[in-house]
Each structure stands twice: as C-alpha cells, then as structure tokens.
Amino acid sequence: MRRLFLLPFLLIHTLTGLAQTGNRNDFQLTLSNTQKEVRIDGVLDEEIWSTAQSAENFWLNAPSDNALATNTTIVKVAYDDKHLYIAALMKGPRKYIIQSLKRDGDLEASDAFSVVLDPVGQKALGYMFGVNVGGAQTEAMVSAAQGVFVQSVDNSWDARWYSAVKQNEEGWVAEMAIPFKSIRFKKGATNWGINFWRSDRQANERHVWAKVPVQFSPTDLGFTGSLLWEVAPEPTGMNISLTPYALSSVARDFQNNIAPTRDFDFGGEAKVGLSPTLNLDLTVNPDFSQTDVDQQVTNLSRFSIFFPERRQFFLENADVFTNFGAFPDAPFFSRRIGLDATGSKVPITYGARLSGNLDRNWRIGVLNAQTKGDTLLPGQNYTAAALHRRVLKRSTIRALVVNRQSVTEGEFSSTDYGRNATLEFEYISNDGKWVGKAGYNHAFKENVTTDNQFIVGSMGYNGRKFQANYGLQIMGDNYTADMGFVGRLNNYDPINKVIVPIGYTKSSTNIDYSWFPQNKKVIRHWMGLENYVHWVRNGTLNESYTRLRYFFFFRNTSQLRFRVNNNFVSLLFPFQLTSESPLPVGDYNFTEYNIQFNTDLRRKLNLELFAVSGAYYTGNKTTLRSTLNYRVQPWGNFAMGFEMNDIRLGDPYGSTRLWLINPKFEVNFTNNLFWTTFLQYNTQADNFNINSRIQWRYRPMSDLFLVYTDNYLTEGTFGPKNRSIVLKFNYFFQL
What is the pLDDT of residue 356? Predict the structure, then answer.
C-alpha cells in the first residue's frame, strides 16, 4: 500500500525533474571579500562597490513573467569576517510610494528592495531582509511550508541587522549589513541560494534577479540563484544573545469591582547558537504585553475561529511544529500555550525550544513550556517534538509528538493529559508546481481508545494559468488536540447545554484559471470554482459550499471581484443566531451574491468595499464591509473600517444587526519611533476595545513600549469592563 501511495508522487517527481528550474546554474553571483570598513550610509563610495560583481538584468515577476523589468536595478554583494554586505541601486522615476516608516510592514505596498537567502540550500527555510525607500526595515523567516498556521513569509521574526537608504539623481540606493550571527548557515558551504526582488510601485511591477514564474512569490526558495563564496564564512563561535525585560503595570477590573492593582515584573529570553544551523531558545517569565492585539471578527458560523500567533518566542522555525494537519485543523497550535480560550494571558513560568537543521537533510524541533496554576486550574506542562527528513529534493517525511499534562504541586497527573502523534509525507516537486500531502494523526486520552484518529490527504497543481487542488480529511468522533486546533468537531447542543463531538469527512476542491491580456488597464483575469463538502456519521451530508468567482486585476492596483455562493446546511442541533427562537434541526439551502472592489491602493486616499446579499437559512442576510484609508506620506496612516451584518430570519426566529467598527491610527515619527492606536467596537462580543501602543526602538532589537488597553460594555449601559497600562523596557545584547 505504501508503495502504491507513493507511486504518483514519484512519477510526478520524475517528470517535473526534467523541467526543473535552472536558476542555480543560470543566475550566479560571486562575492567579493573586503578588509576595509563599509559604512552603512546609503552612499556607495567604498572601493569594494566599484569592483564587486553586479547582478543586473532583472526580470518581471508581476504582472507578467515574460519580459525584462521596466526599470533598471543593480545589486552588488560583499563580505568580511562578520557581515554580509548588499548594495542596490534602483533606477527610475522618483515619485515614490512610502506606505509607512514602521518596521515589519508590507514591503510590496511601497517602493522597496529585498534580498532572499537560503544559506543551507534545502529550498525549505531561509531569510528575507528588505527596506522601503523610506528606510523602514522588514526581516522575515521564509519557508516552503504549506502548513495550517505558519506563513511562508513570517515578518514577526526579529533579527539584528543594519541598513540605510538614500535618494540620488538616478533613483535610490539601499545598503545593508547582515551579521553572520543573525542567520543560521552550514559550515563550509560555498554555494548559498539567493535572490533579489524589487517592488516598483510606479509601474505596479515586481522585479526579480533570478526568474520566478508569475504564479509564485518572489520569496519562493525554489527559484533562488547561487551566491558563490571563494572561501566559506566561518561560524562566529558560540552565538549567545540575551534580552532581559522589566515592566511596570497598573490594571483595574471594573466588572468584578476590584480595586486597581499595581505590578512590577521582570524576565527575559536567551538565544544560544549551538551550531551554525541549530538554535536553543530559553525564556523565563515571558511577557507579551506589547504584542499586536487580535483583530476581532464577526463569527456567523457554528464553530470556533482562530487567531494567528504573534508572540516572538514561538515564531522562529515555527514551521517545524506547525506544518502538520490540514486547514483549519492541526495537532499543534502554539496559542494553546499561555493563552486561554478567550485569548487572555495564562502566566508562563519558563519555556525552552531547540530548533534548526542537524544537517542538510534533517531538521529537529523540541519545545517545552510550563504555565502557572491557580485555585481553579492546575499548572500545565506542554511538550512538542518534531523531526523532519528531506527526500526527493524538496519533499519531506516528518513526525510530531505533542503532550499536555496537568501538574499539581510539582507532580504530573497520570489521568489529566492530552497527547497526539503524527506522521506525514509532504511532496513538493522540483519546479514547485505539484504539491501533495498524506498524514495520519492519533490522539491519546484517558479512557479513549476508539475513533480517535485524524487522516489527511491532498494533491495540487500550480501552473501559470491553471491551478487545481483536492483535499480529503477524515476526523473521528473522539479525536482531541489539547495543543492544537480543531475547528468544527465540537457541536453545541443548546437544549441540553452540552458540547457534542461529531467526527466528519471533508472534501475540498479548488479549480482556477487565469489569463494575462496584453492590455494597458486589465492585467489579469481570474476565474475559479470552490467546493467544500462535509459528511458526518454514516456518510450523512452535513454541509456543502460551492462558490463561483471571477476577478479583474487592473494595472493601477485596483481590483473588482464577483462571487456567487451556494450553501447547504443540515443542522444537527438548533442554532441560535438572534435573541429569539433558535433555528430548528433540519436542512437549509440558500444562495448569496458577492461583490468586492478596491480603488488604486497607491493613492493617498483609497477605498475598499465588500458586499454580500442573498438568502440565509429561513430569511435573508446582507453584509457590508468597507475600509477607507488615508496616507500622509510617509509618516501617517489612518483607516476607518466597519462591517455590518443584517440578518432577518422571519418569525419566530427574529432579526439582528451586528456591527464591527475598527478605526486604526498609525503615526511613525521616525524609522524607530511608532505610535499605533486600534479601536474595535464589536456588538456581537459586547465589547469596545482601545489598544494604543508607543514603541521606541532605541537600539537594534532593544525597545521601550508603552501600551494602554481599555475594554467597555456595548450592550445596555455603556461602561468600563477592564483597563490597564503597561510600561515595558527590554535590552538586547550579544556575548
């Protein structure tokens, strides 16, 4: 059976190997060594920049991929014993777009330049360092992961590096210095994967040095060229960094009439480079008060929704643990550690994580964290261990074991635990066009021995014009994932007021076709079909969703999207949508129509509109969503967003109108001083939230935060729920 299952993957691998991209051979750049000081000032007057080999003749990646870039980009690379240096000249019109001066923003939204590095050469994990023309830095972990909660480009990762930009008569210059201590690389390797990409907002184009097909991101590690070293860089020895913090806070709980409480706390993190590619992270009493607040949503489904991980400790090499399962279900989800079901903080006593590459083919990840207990809930110990083995060039066989166990007075409970074991094969063809996955997950729980498995399988093709994928998920009634996320297993029975786990089989199909006309206004047409089907016990149809869509993409960055959605739902339990009678058990079939439009995103004032209207269960639903954005270049971004859901189900099921209003204000005084305020008025959650944060990065990786959070009731009497203000200071230094 195993051989029969692998046969299609092996056949595809053999065929695509014949068409494998030759970028590593066709795009090569030899480094120049320098022993003289390189000043990172955006002025390329050092001798090394006049002699170093150039990377030129950039290609289009978007809106098409069949021509050279409109404007010229020239890149040179050098190194000394501590840094990798990059200098880039971007020629062209000087009417630049600077969306923000804030760190870790959307590079593609501004005129920007980035370098993508694959030091290990696995085409699986690498780095991106980029700057926009305003000098705002963005660094990110880049992976080939297809996982549930990991992003292929995760700019939440943080690293110390240096950059400067300067405009001149030809265009603008970006100069970078990346310390070898900030990245992981294989000792003795003289050929790294590398690519450069440029966001040219005036022409609305993406440019790349090594060719990347239009259906792939310029950060895709499968298309990097070669960075050739005359002498491989030497590891910098024991790489140890420390980031202690101290904070002072004041909080008050109005709902429970608790007097203001004052607190002073401290802790920190340490990072130890055990080898050039293997890292040990340690944390004691971590604090995440400065983390971006979750963006609230209106949930009209019968099931849970998830929010992304934003805490720095859990982000580096996150794909080692998270790239398991199939959307939206996964055996590991780091937000289960240190956060409760509402997103409130559960104090973590300590955490340790070992992650990285053992060699070119093996990756490892081991994590352990302990939370504090109280009178209501015992402490919890969380452990995860993952092992990845590269096969077939870019494919992976991997295993994961996770364990949550209660701890009382230092003793592990023998009955209160939740464990999962997973084995998966993930296929990525040499040219990246074919992807697939097959996996088996088993859950272990006290007194649960049957129907506790989760099986996934998928296959997809990503061509230039045609894309298609099919997925299958089978989940047993008794499957659990205490350290993971299970979206729709648990059904609420409002009559008996209990949660009923009901396993399911899910089939998902996506088919898309695009074409790129030679047109000055419309640069892409995209049409597609989506279909999702859920069956429950004994093959009973529980839910199906079919969507037809047609999108127009315009050269000026505006977009127009049309969708038609048909829904079938067989309610197994009554469903409460309003304050009146719940919808009864039975079958419902309804169709809705959707239109979405955004104006030119490059303009200082732009608008995004989204509207859905049609039948909904026994009545009708209209959804209106809009965001008005205004940019004061380069220092300010102001957005006013709202969403309204008007649900009218008829008698006796009632009607309701749900509002979500979320203005956001961002003021960037410099590249190192930011003030962000986010307001969220949510009638469904009965909450009005204010989150205001000032961040001063006074030196690389070292910050001062001032965070104000306030929550109010929205239903009935408007009044405060809880309020806090936090002053936090951290300091980064390397040994």
Answer: 84
Q: Nearest Cα to 197, choosing from 170, 177, 171, 216?
A: 216
Residue type, 202: Q
Token pair 């074409």 in the structure block, residue: 515
Among the listed residues 609, 611, 617, 608, the one whose alpha carbon sits nearest the alpha carbon of residue 656: 617
Mean pLDDT, rounded, of the chain: 89
- What are the CA-CA distances from residue 176 to residues 113, 138, 234, 489 (Å)? 11, 12, 20, 49
Contact 131, 213 (CB under 8 A): no
Question: In this predicted structure, what is the pLDDT of residue 236?
Answer: 67
For the stretch 500-519, what's the b/e string if a residue is b when 16 or more beta carbons lie within 10 angstroms of its beta carbon?
eeebbbbebebebebebeee
Q: Which residue has the tokens 């910050």?
A: 703
Question: Dihedral sign, CA of 47, 48, 52, 56?
Answer: negative
Between 94 and 405, the more confident residue is: 405
Q: What single-letter DSSP state applies at residue 653?
A: T
Retrieve residue 537's tokens. Answer: 């016990």
3-state SS, residue 86: strand
Domains of the chain, each with CATH number or no CATH? 21-228 (2.60.40.1190)
Across residues 73-98, what is the average pLDDT? 93
Q: Which of 539, 431, 423, 402 is nearest to 5 (CA)?
A: 423
> pLDDT tens digits for 531-577?
999 999 888 999 999 999 999 999 899 999 999 999 999 999 999 88
